[in-house]
Specification:
Layout: H1 2-19, H2 25-43, E1 48-49, E2 52-53, H3 54-80, E3 94-101, E4 104-109, E5 112-117, E6 127-134, E7 137-142
Helix pairs in contact: 1-2, 2-3
């Protein structure tokens, strides 16, 4: 009876991880519940679980563990990537001045026109580097 509950908990935790990403915490808890259920089966001396051999249950556990490791590696890789959109992505990008007067104007970067502030002596069509942003205004400096 306890084994069925542990296996059900393991399955529920894995499904919850798929729909509510918790960075692998629920999946690891599910794997622990699954391993504990296998341990109870082996400790009880049973050689099958509802007609499925313990060997197959253990193999399924290894497949589950490998999938969990691959998921965590993929998650770590995805979370370590630098931003590809938004203002965070603009830092360090080159921009072209399209209008400038008295230390402010407009620059063109990545297909968009942005308000910008920077040195007073910038000229139209000059290439600058985005160094910072605040709200919808970029800070630029000469390249």
């Amino acid at each position: 009876m306890y084994v069925e509950i542990l296996f059900t908990i393991a399955l529920v935790l894995l499904v919850l991880e798929a729909f509510n990403p918790t960075k692998g915490i629920l999946a690891i808890a599910g794997f622990i519940a699954y391993i504990y259920g296998i341990w109870i089966l082996i400790d009880a001396g049973q050689d099958n679980f509802y007609g499925v051999s313990i060997t197959n249950v253990i193999i399924l556990g290894f497949v589950f563990a490998i999938a969990l490791v691959l998921f965590i590696v993929y998650l770590k890789k995805a979370l370590s990537k630098s931003p590809e959109t938004g203002t965070e992505f603009l830092k360090g990008k080159s921009a072209t001045v399209i209008q400038w007067a008295n230390g402010s104007g407009s620059v063109f970067v990545d297909g968009e026109t942005w308000r910008a502030v920077g040195p007073h002596d910038l000229a139209i069509d000059e290439i600058v580097t985005v160094t910072d942003y605040e709200k919808l205004t970029l800070t630029v400096e000469k390249k």
